[in-house]
Amino acid sequence: MDVIIRTVSKAIFPFILLLGVFIIFHGHLTPGGSFPGAAITISGIALIIISYSLKKAERIINEENAHKIEAIVALILALIVIYEPVFRNYIKYGTRLFELWSAQQILFLNLLGGAMAATALLLIIFLMVKE
Amino acid sequence: MMKKIAFTLSLIVIFTFLFSVISSDIFASWKNKDVARYYLENGLKKTGSPNIVSSVVWDFRAFDTLGEETVLFTAAVGIFTLMIFGPKKKKKA
To answer: What span, in angstroms and rounded, lies between the C-alpha atoms of A26 and A107?
Structure first.
């Protein structure tokens, strides 16, 4: 692609990642959550794929690594949701409102769900580019 | 002939469903929606998160969200198998 497009996309790529991670982390305080944050995060990688090439994006995250991350995260998510009554007694911090560490288990679940949605969207984008 | 009959039947079914949904929203009173009212009133106290949507999605209805993530996981596994075991591309000359 063009030099201007490459330079601008390389400059704004970390800020897009930062916005996506911020939305995932503040899912229990502000509108948004795991799915919109994952979509924003992956849109940054899609921008890199469009402006550079697939190899440049695979240097950031490989598809096999993405699949491994998704499998591990899915296992942890299922365990936390199923054994939530047990964990509820141990995770108790910050009862003040509008603090980052305030909601009991929603923060962890948002993080894990965001990771799962991000890896799934990443695999879909890789398949669409390769075909 | 069969196509016209099937078309009219599907139209009738779709419009009855749409009308039932709309009328249930219009005629049902707020007093009958106990579950929604409970979530709105006690969501902040029980979960501690000011975002009602996330408190419903990840606390009250966490099992539904687990099913949703299962759908995503299944889609990703299918894509991964397509990428590995699918038909191999012909090399461009």
So the answer is: 8
